[in-house]
């Protein structure tokens, strides 16, 4: 009887040790599962954004950047080709009175700043274009200053670019590769402050440099 009593504490310690081992293994398994689940969720978040913006947004017919004229806010006339200079272009048709347009430009401006911080600012040119007349330039300036926008802005005085690209709703974003081909046409607001979106833009830059 005494010998059995002596063995009992050892058996209890063995059972506790096994229980602790199982508990640690379960915690490790849960941790691995949580990490894997987070990766899946992150992948889904990316996929939720990219198909809507970059896959469904692809145009089926190939517009090319034209040599039609636009003007900067000082009234100097330029063409899209002059401004693009064989760079990737993000063209945004917007209006100073449209809040979605303004929010879109704020997001694009932050992407522009991120690219500049990575010494990639010269690889992409961002072109906000509104169709106001010369007399309405003060309206654009007020919107620019009120919302803290610093991107260079342009106006389509003759409405030629709005007609050429068939702009029927704003904001409208066109992403143009270095060959001058419109590869994405995105209608409405989209969130640019997203790693997946920025990476996709950089992949277009890299393709253009190959």
From TrEMBL:
Residues 1-36 form the signal peptide. It comes from the Bacteria. Pfam families: Redoxin (PF08534). InterPro entries: Redoxin, Thioredoxin-like_sf, Thioredoxin_domain. The keyword GTP-binding does not apply. Gene3D superfamilies: Glutaredoxin. Keywords: Signal. GO terms for molecular function: oxidoreductase activity. Residues 59-210 form the Thioredoxin domain. This is Putative thiol-disulfide oxidoreductase.
